[in-house]
Design goal:
heterodimer; A: Rossmann fold; 7-stranded parallel β-sheet; 8 helices; 7 strands; B: alpha/beta; Rossmann fold; globular
């Protein structure tokens, strides 16, 4: 018997990195899991690797697009009959730059993929969670949702906004059996970080190695986090024991954030 | 396989309330556990109820005293050969009052019970854990470690203070294999709260004990108190090997009460 037997979870952007680790943890805990991503072939590959048979499904969806977010929730319910757990994991930033040189397009995309996607998926999922009086919404924010670094203002802004949305939603649904929390990881060297980190570092005026070192040095553990750190908390929050934790911005950053 | 197989835990308090919940959860996860309380007879009864056999032991001592906070570490090492997990859990108020009416005696008691005992137990644990390169220190703070309530000045001051201690110790030990974290529970209707709650409620300017429970519930999003089991689940996570990258963390279990 797993802690999540009978539960259905959706993880946006769950084919790799943090989302993938959460998907695998939920499958181990007995849940049925839907992951989304933009690339159909990669998504199907991820599902095959997770080797969960009928308990896992991929939905091709771009988290920066409202219709895709809403379809992700709809296809989950169509396939598995319900949705209990939503992990708003998709996120990122492109074309980072100091604010003085920042483009509208870069800000817009960062807000779409981090903030709007969380809003769209949550709104759609709540339509199912509220009537069933049970739900878990877990927003993958960042330590940069609490503090700020130069040159990545779009990311910092979007993640702060996600934390605000988290607190407000938690208050709205607190008596309905639904919890809403944000996880704030420190830097993790995922595939996405390896791709997007070097240009972000350039915007910050440093090398990619210096960027990773910056995150490590401001922590107590003096090293980066890993995806499993996030997955264990995501499992706890999704469980019945997580019922008393809501509206929390949980730091998973090796002791970096001051609060 | 439990998550704490082969580990030894000590819990100040631990015969009832939050500490008891931690002890039972740790036993289920395969740890050996030392619990503590003042009364030897109650302690014997508590460990009999928990049914841990040779895997649980009781250390008698007043948790407000340095000899207890340090002695439980030595006791655990003597009994079970090592100490991996130290829960600095015991705490509370006896005769709280608004600042203007607070007695030196109560103030000192709260300092010793909620702050000094955490320091004494943490220092002693670290002296054992650092040479071994492994340890999990878990401090039971409170939602009142970040907020404030009228009539609870000593509790608020000490529960804030242990968060400062937790953060500093986490920074000191971050690369050593030892982690230091705090859990911040919202109000839980434990035995201790039922005993001291009515008097505390009066000092908080409230009409009744029930009004105090309502005040805490009302400021949460879930509009009800938390439970011992919710705190114990977080303690298991922080105590596990998988939590090696968690340190200096202030983990709320407060149903959405705190603004940060």
């Amino acid at each position: 018997m797993g802690e999540l037997d009978g539960r259905v979870a959706v993880i946006s952007g769950g084919t790799r990195g943090i989302g993938r680790a959460i998907a695998e943890a939920y499958l181990r805990d007995g849940a049925k899991v839907v992951v989304s991503g933009r690339d159909q072939a990669k998504g199907e590959g991820a599902i095959a690797e997770m080797n969960a048979g009928d308990n896992a499904m991929f939905v091709a969806a771009d988290s920066a697009v409202r219709e895709d977010c809403e379809r992700l929730i709809a296809e989950t319910v169509a396939r598995y009959g319900r949705i209990d757990i939503l992990v708003n994991n998709a996120g990122g930033s492109k074309d980072n730059a100091p604010v003085a040189q920042l483009t509208d397009e870069a800000m817009d995309w960062a807000l779409k993929v981090n903030l709007w996607s969380t809003f769209w998926c949550s709104r759609a999922a709540l339509q199912h969670m509220i009537p069933q009086q049970w739900g878990r919404i877990i927003n993958i924010s960042s330590t940069e949702g609490k503090v700020g670094k130069p040159g990545i203002a779009i990311y910092v802004t979007a993640k702060h906004a996600v934390n605000g949305l988290t607190k407000s939603m938690a208050q709205e649904v607190g008596t309905l059996g639904i919890t809403v929390n944000a996880l704030c990881p420190g830097a993790i060297e995922t595939d996405m970080m390896k791709t997007d980190g070097p240009p972000a570092a350039e915007a910050m005026g440093i090398t990619y190695e210096a960027l990773l070192d910056w995150f490590a040095q401001e922590s107590a553990i003096k090293r980066l986090n890993d995806v499993e750190d996030v997955a264990i908390v995501a499992s706890l929050l999704a469980s019945d024991a997580g019922a008393g934790i809501t509206g929390s911005l949980i730091s998973i950053d090796g002791g970096s954030a001051p609060y | 396989m439990g998550k704490l197989e082969g580990r030894v835990a000590a819990i100040t308090g631990g015969t009832r309330s939050i500490g008891r919940g931690m002890a039972e959860a740790f036993l289920r996860e395969g740890a050996k556990v030392v619990v503590n309380g003042r009364d030897a007879a109650k302690g014997a009864q508590a460990i009999a109820e928990m049914g841990g056999g040779d895997n649980i032991a009781f250390f008698a001592g007043d948790a407000t005293k340095q000899s207890t906070a340090e002695g439980i570490v030595d006791f655990a090492v003597e009994r079970f050969g090592q100490l991996d997990i130290m829960c600095l859990n015991s705490g509370g108020v006896m005769h709280t009052a608004p600042v203007a009416m607070m007695s030196d005696e109560e103030w000192q008691l709260e300092m010793d019970w909620n702050l000094n005992s955490v320091f004494w137990g943490m220092r002693k644990s670290l002296q054992h854990m650092l040479p071994r390169g492994y340890g999990r220190i878990i401090v039971t703070s409170s939602v009142e470690g970040k907020g404030g309530k009228p009539g609870l000045p000593g509790y608020n001051a000490t529960k804030h203070a242990v968060l400062g201690l937790t953060k500093a110790a986490a920074k000191e030990t971050g690369t050593t294999g030892v982690t230091v974290n705090a859990i911040l529970p919202g109000l839980i209707e434990t035995d201790i709260v039922r005993e001291t709650g009515p008097e505390s409620a009066k000092m908080m300017g409230l009409e009744s004990y029930d009004a105090m429970i309502d005040l805490f519930a009302a400021e949460s999003a879930i509009k009800k108190p938390n439970t011992v089991e919710q705190v114990a689940a977080v303690a298991v996570l922080l105590a596990s090997e998988a939590a090696r990258n968690f340190t200096g963390c202030m983990f709320p279990v407060d149903g959405g009460s705190l603004p940060y």
